[in-house]
Each structure stands twice: as C-alpha cells, then as structure tokens.
Amino acid sequence: MSKNKVFYLILLCLFISIVMKSFDVIRMIANVSCFVFVLLYVKEEIKTYTRKALAILSICFLFLVGFCTFIILKGQAVIKDHPFLTGWETIAIVLLIIVSINTCAFILRKVSNRLKRLKTDRL
C-alpha cells in the first residue's frame, strides 16, 4: 500500500473518531485502525532500527505520551482557573495541546536521530 493511501486512511480514521463521539464501538475501531495505519506508514523506517533501538524508542514514546497527557490535563486546569485567560480558554487550550505535542515529537525525533547515528557509527 502506498504512503499516500495510508496517510489519507489515517486522516479518515481520525475524522471518523472525532465525528462519532456518541458511538463508542465505532470510535474504538477507528482508533485501533488508525494505529495500524500509522504502523504501516512507518514500516520502512522501523525496519532500519535494531531491536535495542526499537525498545528504547518504545519506552521513550510511552514516557512522552504519559508526560504529554499530564501536561495537557494540568494545563487545562490552570488555564480554567487563571483570571487573565477569561474568554480565551479555547485558544489557550488549543495552543497548549499544539505546543506540548510538538515538544514531545521534537524530543522523540532527536532520540530517533541519535539512535540512527549510533547505528551508522558502528558500521
């Protein structure tokens, strides 16, 4: 399957997941299939890593997901309690989500590049 098709399938699954808020089963199926499509999208890049590098990336990913979730939840609570942001809560929350996800993606990209460099240095 080409990367373009997989990319559009990922977007379709995310759209279905957002639209079907009241149907938990359909949302769960869309989320799981989105995860599968993401794995298909990065399949060629995953093949270049060793098992140790994949383990390190997986642990880093799980840690960053937990950290990002914590930052978003605590940030939302702080934003709602702060009087300066009255009327701007939605924009502030969207910016918080964008910044925290971009920061976690940046860290994961740096770790990934470092692991790739270590592999090429040993060869």
TrEMBL record:
InterPro entries: YoqO. The chain crosses the membrane at residues 5-20, 26-42, 54-73, 85-108. The keyword Calcium does not apply. The keyword Membrane applies. Pfam families: YoqO. Keywords: Membrane, Transmembrane, Transmembrane helix. This is YoqO-like protein. It comes from Bacillus inaquosorum KCTC 13429. The lineage of its organism: Bacteria, Bacillati, Bacillota, Bacilli, Bacillales.
